[in-house]
Design goal:
heterodimer; A: mainly beta; Rossmann fold; Neuraminidase; 2 domains; six-stranded mixed sheet; 5 helices; B: alpha+beta; 60s Ribosomal Protein L30, Chain: A; four-stranded mixed sheet; two-stranded antiparallel sheet; 47% helix; globular
Chain lengths: 446, 159
Amino acid sequence: MKRFLYIIFFVFWPIYAWSLIEVDITRGNLNPLPIAVSPLSIDEESRKKFEQILNKKNIGSEISVIVEKNLKTSGLFNPLDKDAFLQAPDIANLKPRFEDWNLIKAQALITGKVNLIDEKMRVEFRLWDILAGKEMMALAFTTVPTNWRRVGHIITDKVYERLTGEKGYFDTRIIYVAEDGPKTKRIKKLAIMDQDGENNKFLTLGNELVLTPRFNPTSQMVTYLSYFRNLPRVYLLDIETGMQEVVGDFPGMTFAPRFSPNGKKIIMSFAKDGNSDIYTMDLENRVVEKITNHPSIDTSPSYSPDGKYICFNSDRSGYQQIYIMKSDGTNVKRISFGKGLYGTPVWSPRGDLIAFTKLHKGKFYIGVMRIDGSGERLLTENFYQEAPSWSPNGRVLIFYRETKTDDKGEGFSAKLWSIDLTGYNERLVNTPTDASDPSWSSLLSN
Amino acid sequence: MKLNKILKNAFLVVLACLALSACATSKKSSGQMQGDVYTGTDTVEYLASGVPDRVFFATNESVLTTASRETLRKQAAWLRKNSKVTIVLEGHADERGTREYNLALGERRANAAKDYLMTYGISSDRISVLSYGKERPVDSGSNPLAWSKNRRSVTVKAN
């Protein structure tokens, strides 16, 4: 990931930037903001050179298409049809004729310019408020040309942040398990892709079963479960180097791993004589600590963002429920009391909510509750779905859903889906193969 | 009048019996379950003649049924006779649970079988345990019968 990071920002905020257009993301948005995304203008010389390097005819248009798709996917914006645009990209970027854009009912406009300087891609873009006739934001940055997709994501993040007041989640990646083959002999591989499903890459070959990959806070490392040599153990993988190592030296199955918020510890379950308890291992000094000590199943641990608390799944009451405790294992408190079984608790990056899977009367739900268990809200219901993972801004959840097989046991599929915290904007996330166990990275350019 | 009532009641009882037996037979013919524990032999393999390789569990349970204990006693007898054999107990769950909880549940089921074999004199050195959670169903169906076949602990020869 480090190699991406010589993106340099020049920000020149307008000095008298009073609040103009605002998008409220706390409610389901039934009237997405009409926005025009003008193709980034490009001079002929740069266009030709980019075509040689990237094999894309007009990189300016390609980048604007990424921005458009991202904005649409967010459910908060309605990108307008480019055929209706009256002004050429280069002129619009200098000074839009607001009446023209008003005419096609755009409320906001994104313009920009891309060119090649010293083998680097230089991008500038502006966000305009059409009704007020004002520039809201102008930004420029330089990066390597192969980063062009990320340029589109970064522009989206900046626009999203300016209009909603919260950080975006577009310059991010998803790690997940790619699935193939019959249900009884499923082949599973670790895979990673951009948030929009592009740049998909397989990280393992599928020789052994792999499950539940999760990013560390910098999104450079992944912890996951592998059945290498039929010994199910928690592993660490460095995405850049491909180096893998087993975590700790446990005489039995370790599973359900996650990183601590500072990335220095792994928290996971260890099964001893049939009983699963929660343990941590410090990655620097390899010290192992036992956190829970109970004859029930304790699993699916997840830290609060400040690292002071842990939520987890236990059946100590007789059935699967959600509990929280201090990070040293004291003050265990059950928080789920609704009807049904609860699993896979995940603490929100904002700290105020816990996402979960619920099983009730043969249906599976993805939901959220406050950390004291109050305010339970079910976002989506289906035959089978589980394993929510938060977008880095805590506004969207990604999870996986499996279909019921028919009488012959056929027709099985597993796919990734996302849904807004509001319960609106449920979407299929494109993957080249069947997919499960998604984990959302942090914002890469930060 | 009274006789009439008795007759009527008797008639109802007969009806109820018929209905129940119909239920029982339809359950049996559709796949042999008792409660929701699988009692059939569709997927069962044999370690030796008369020694089934697997036991089945109720939903969310790791308690051994009477039939399971009988199967495990047969396995223990066979293991005592074949003292060089080592085994892996593979624990499984059905698809109606979260992945991580099911890994723990599969582990618990296989260990229930292990503990029982040990009380019948099989040394723990000869037994290892491997949970697959819901990753390796034997029946790919999405129905109660398929799920009952998948909630299992399978004894596999390791050498």
